[in-house]
From TrEMBL:
It comes from Chryseobacterium hagamense. InterPro entries: Topo_IA, Topo_IA_2, Topo_IA_AS, Topo_IA_cen, Topo_IA_cen_sub1, Topo_IA_cen_sub2, Topo_IA_cen_sub3, Topo_IA_core_domain. Keywords: DNA-binding, Isomerase, Magnesium, Metal-binding, Topoisomerase. This is DNA topoisomerase 1. Monomer. Its EC number is 5.6.2.1. Residues 128-572 form the Topo IA-type catalytic domain. NCBIfam families: topA_bact (TIGR01051). The gene is topA. Belongs to the type IA topoisomerase family.
Length: 860
């Protein structure tokens, strides 16, 4: 064993560092944090805010191995990342492994290169407790907010909800943007475009400098233009420049990877992490745009070599954010001589980083901008044509131009023909088109990151998990918004003739943008109404500033917690005691058949329409909303249509057929099989013929593709990708197989491997009791239903061997379960006879106004 033990947080990083340090050092990975707050319970003493850290179950074996390695080493080098999270990992390792200051050293580096590693070894330090305390403050504060606010949501909105400090603010941004879009009233105006011809027949496209508010004004202008002589009134040509953007920070990388590569934030950070750990780029969590002198020199050498000296313009950039102090450089390549790497997916992101860094050190692009004014003194407005010519491409040679997310499709980068002032032009066509103003765009992932950064909410390391969390909690999603249609007026002047047309245009549609769910909107409104300070953008930013002050040693973290909690907890108690329940209830109208009120609201199982009141003697009836419908916008007519679902059709092949809508959208039910109705198709429009078409498509899709030992094998695609099905076993098909052309040998190989794995899975199994002892990744465990339980040690403190577990009785296993969960076998209370059943199975709505409930259905 080496005298020097280096501990990093990831195996990929360990592998890269090992090759630089050689045989005198042994490099091991902690696989991230080895301990944290407990998963169950708050784990914080609220009298003094001391956290109760514990080693997670899946890390106990690893910690034992690290302790053994520490005993054999003279010096332990803690080499986790250089940010607060990395500092906390190093501190937890030092605490758990009982490392004394004299036999531990902390080293940091922002790139994994030989020079950087060796330099860090030469300049070690101890653990920075201020950075650790900043991380602890964030962890403890967020745990308290989540654990105290979530039960309030369970009581006041519906069970199973959760709240978080940064996540709730991110949801609020999305909800407020959606409300802004709903309330937006578009205003119409007429924009005029003209195409003019010079004597040489060259076209000049121009726009009228001012829009008309009324159709009559636009039509009058076209009438005047019909006989007008158009001239070039002015030509203005002036030089201009375009300069490169600064090198990437975490947030700008996330935004640009979204715009140019179509990567989501999580994927961008995953790939960037790999690039960093494999030594290709500097540390990828940074607020800084600075470059080291070494990097500036490296970029200059590459630019001069590849493009020429005239393209080089070395410069450094100043970071605007006052809190950008955890990492000292922007994200850049570690070696500019490495122009590309082998892995195609990694290379796409690497190229983006490489070219952005090079461009930041290149000369400005030189352009010539030309503006031509076209008109007639008799006309109230004149046309303007704009064009740009690139005289010297500069940084564009490396990076090019990308259109901003909210930039208009029209651009001015076109070459204009040479004309002189006073030159007469003929109009080819002048068009007045009715245009409507548009509301602010919904947030993309990149747009949300940009907004969070602008408001000072969160830090580079929090953007990706925040965005993932709000989707996992189903507070927001990226469902497709179907566009609406409206009429627009288009008036054209060509060949002395004016022509008017009424056209249709689609508007309001969206894809891959964040939309709040009904639950997300109700939760956000409730939290904003009752916890104004926590949901306040300024407050959230101030909390981040406090974390920065703690990291700098300017504030005590427990004092910050005391100040926060002294105001926060009384508010929790007040809201829990006095706030009204939140359901997002909207009274839509009165059911003409029963005379009862029709409500749109959030219920225990999500968004629904309710006819009648819960306190009525005759219980209400319910209907689930369809995908794309929202309790805040659904109309009375749309709501009443939902009570037609489910409805029955004629049998097909002796099996009953019905159409309904459930948790996963509209479906056709054939026997016990649920078949999704294609996206965008209205289930109420599905008749007998269409239902049979959908069933036949399902039959074809489910037809056996082969047999295995005389049994049919089918294939399909599910939430985890393509699969084949044999008996009741689903087998994922890896990418190395050609899913569309699976051979019999492929199928045999896949099923054989799955059966072998299943055979080795169970040590003992009691199917009736739903209890089993199974082999897992970290060793044997007990499974009861969906819950997993640890296997205790024997009386002599040794672990059970597999042969011994095969002899353990069911009663003994049950005892293991109840020791860990005393209520595991407690008899569940049966629901009262008159109580509406949980929405697991669809029931046909009766024509009479009985207590029947139209419920959500889980597709099989």
């Amino acid at each position: 064993m080496s005298k020097n033990l280096v501990i990093v947080e990831s195996p990929a990083k360990a592998k890269t560092i090992q090759k630089y340090l050689g045989k005198d050092f042994d490099v091991k990975s902690s696989f991230g944090h080895i301990r944290d707050l407990p998963k169950k319970g708050m784990g914080i003493d609220l009298s003094n805010f001391n956290p109760d850290y514990e080693v997670s179950a899946d890390k106990k074996k690893l910690v034992t191995e690290l302790k053994a390695a520490v005993k054999k080493a003279d010096m332990v080098w803690l080499a986790s990342d250089e940010d607060r999270e990395g500092e906390a990992i190093a501190w937890h390792l030092a605490e758990e492994l009982k490392l004394k200051p004299e036999n531990r050293k902390r080293i940091v580096f922002h790139e994994i290169t030989k020079n950087a590693i060796l330099k860090s070894i030469e300049n070690p330090r101890d653990i920075d407790q201020n950075l650790v305390n900043a991380q602890q403050a964030r962890r403890v504060l967020d745990r308290i907010v989540g654990f105290e606010m979530s039960p309030v949501l369970w009581k006041k909105v519906k069970p199973g909800l959760s709240a978080g400090r940064v996540q709730s603010v991110a949801v609020r941004l999305i909800v407020e943007r959606e409300k802004e879009i709903r309330e937006f009233v578009p205003k119409a105006s007429f924009k005029l475009d003209g195409i003019f011809l010079n004597k040489a027949g060259q076209e000049i496209s121009a726009k009228l400098k001012k829009d008309f508010n009324k159709e009559e004004e636009a039509e009058k202008f076209l009438e005047q233009s019909r006989t007008a002589e158009f001239k070039v009134l002015n030509v203005d040509t002036r030089p201009g420049t375009r300069s490169a953007s600064a090198p990437f920070t975490t947030s700008t990388l996330q935004q640009e990877a979204s715009s140019r590569l179509g990567y989501n934030v999580t994927n961008t950070m995953r790939l960037a992490q790999r690039l960093y750990e494999e030594g290709y780029i500097t540390y990828m969590r940074t607020d800084s745009v600075n470059l080291s002198q070494e990097a500036i020199e490296g970029a200059k050498k590459q630019i001069v070599s590849e493009y020429g000296a005239e393209y080089s313009a070395p410069r450094n950039y100043t970071t605007k954010s006052a809190s950008a102090q955890e990492a000292h450089e922007a994200i850049r390549p570690t070696d500019f001589a490495v122009k590309s790497i082998g892995d195609a997916q990694l290379n796409r992101l690497y190229q983006l980083i490489y070219r952005r860094t090079l461009a930041s050190q290149m000369a400005n692009a030189k352009i010539e901008k030309t503006v031509i004014e076209i008109g007639n003194p008799k006309l109230v407005q004149h046309f303007e044509a704009q064009g740009e010519v690139i005289i010297f491409d500069g940084f564009l040679k490396a990076y090019g131009i990308v259109k901003a997310e909210d930039e208009d499709d029209e651009n001015n980068e076109k070459l204009l023909p040479k004309v002189k002032v006073g030159e007469i032009l003929d109009y080819k066509k002048i068009t007045a088109t009715e245009k409507f103003t548009r509301p602010s765009a919904r947030y993309t992932e990149a747009g949300l990151v940009k907004k969070l950064e602008e408001l000072g909410i969160g830090r580079p390391s929090t953007y990706a998990p925040t965005i993932q969390t709000i989707q996992n909690r189903e507070y927001v999603d990226k469902r497709e918004i179907e566009p609406q249609t409206r009429e627009v007026v288009k008036i054209s002047l060509a060949k002395d003739t004016i022509k008017k047309e009424i056209l249709e245009e689609k508007f309001g549609g969206d894809k891959n943008k964040f939309v709040p769910t009904d639950t997300g909107e109700v939760v956000s409104d409730f939290l904003t109404d009752n916890f104004k300070e926590i949901l306040d953008y300024g407050f959230t930013a101030r909390v981040e500033e406090s974390f920065d002050e703690i990291a700098n040693g300017d504030q005590k973290w427990k004092q910050m917690m005391t100040d926060f909690y002294s105001k926060f907890h009384p508010r929790i108690e007040d809201v829990e005691e006095n706030a009204d329940r939140a359901t997002g209830d909207r009274l839509l109208g009165v059911d003409p058949k029963t005379g009862k009120n029709v409500h749109a609201r959030i219920g225990r199982f999500g968004a629904m329409i309710q006819i009648g009141e819960t306190e009525d003697e005759e219980k209400p009836i319910f209907a689930s909303l369809m995908t794309g419908q929202n309790i805040a916008t659904i109309t009375f007519e749309e709501a009443m249509e939902l009570f037609r679902l489910p409805f029955d059709l004629k049998e097909v092949d002796g099996q009953p057929v019905s159409v309904g809508v459930g948790r996963f959208g509209p479906y056709v039910k054939w026997g016990e099989t649920f078949i999704s109705i294609p996206k965008g198709e209205d289930p109420l429009s599905v008749d007998q013929k269409r239902a049979e078409e959908i069933i036949n498509e399902k039959k074809i899709a489910d037809a056996p593709i082969a047999t295995y030992k005389g049994e049919p094998v089918t294939k399909g695609s599910g939430r985890f990708g393509p699969f084949i099905k044999y008996k009741d076993i689903f087998i994922n098909v890896p990418k190395r197989y050609d899913f569309e052309n699976l051979s019999q040998s492929d199928i045999n190989e896949l099923i054989d491997a799955k059966l072998e794995k299943e055979a080795n899975r169970y040590i003992q199994q009691w199917e009736k009791e739903k209890i089993s002892i199974e082999n897992g990744r970290w060793g044997p465990f007990v499974k009861f239903g969906k819950a997993m339980f640890k296997i205790p040690r024997k009386a002599d403190e040794n672990k059970y061997e597999a042969d011994e577990l095969r002899e353990v009785s069911l009663e003994e296993v049950k005892k293991w379960i109840t020791d860990q969960d005393p209520k595991a076998f407690a008899e569940k209370k049966k629901p009262a006879a008159k109580k509406a059943a949980a929405p697991k199975k669809a029931v046909a709505a009766k024509k009479t106004t009985t207590t029947k409930k139209v419920t959500a259905v889980k597709k099989k």
